[in-house]
Write a structure and sequence with these properties.
Length: 204
């Protein structure tokens, strides 16, 4: 078994089925064994450890193509989301302002010309209303910008520089950021649970 499997990300839901956290498979299995967590599948069914082992055995015997975690005595079917029936922590509503979070919010794309900025060297941060004119470093006034557009804009507002923002900047929701951070197959599997809590907007 590839040991990196144990570090695969698992989404954690609180007792109200809201996504509150991300953990890894190793920790999730500990919770499962202790009985503090249940596996939750896409149809919202929850399974305790014993049930999940049985389901895993069934899939293994039927030659399922799913991936398993193997120990000498057990085969456990990989899962993506756990449910903590006693957890009352609430989702964070605000995302901390950092460069990385800004890049994630703006999908690594220049907010003026739309160019994808894969190379960190090409990324600059633009104050929509320039700092020199009292523009603040807050989510609603800061965007990711390529060097070329930044140079063109200089110490002006977008209107003055003849530039147009692709969208009005605003504070992101952390769940949307989570989705950006992980591979597409995880995104698809988590989306349903994030949307249920009303915390993931398709368009942001
Ligand atoms: Zn640009």
């Amino acid at each position: 078994m590839d040991p990196s499997i144990l570090f695969e990300k698992v989404l954690v839901l609180n007792k109200y089925y809201q996504a509150v956290h991300i953990t890894n498979l190793q920790k999730a299995i500990c919770h499962l064994v202790k009985g503090t967590a249940l596996v939750i599948t896409e149809d919202w069914t929850t399974h305790d450890f014993t049930e999940w082992v049985k389901i895993s055995e069934f899939h293994a015997e039927n030659g399922a193509k799913q991936r398993f975690i193997r120990s000498p005595s057990l085969k456990i079917l990989l899962f993506d989301v756990i449910y903590l029936p006693k957890n009352e922590s609430l989702p964070q509503s605000e995302v901390i302002f950092t460069r990385q979070n800004l890049f994630l919010r703006d999908s690594f794309t220049c907010q003026y010309c739309g160019k994808l900025l894969n190379n960190p060297k090409d990324r600059t941060i633009d104050h929509v209303i320039p700092k020199s004119r009292g523009g603040k470093t807050v989510w609603s006034n800061v965007v990711l910008c390529c060097k070329k557009c930044n140079l063109k804009k200089g110490n002006r507002t977008p209107e003055e520089a003849g530039l147009k923002l692709m969208k009005q900047p605003k504070a992101p929701k952390w769940q949307a950021l989570i989705l950006e951070e992980f591979p597409k197959h995880k995104r698809e599997k988590w989306k349903k649970f994030l949307k249920f809590a009303g915390l993931f907007e398709e368009d942001t």
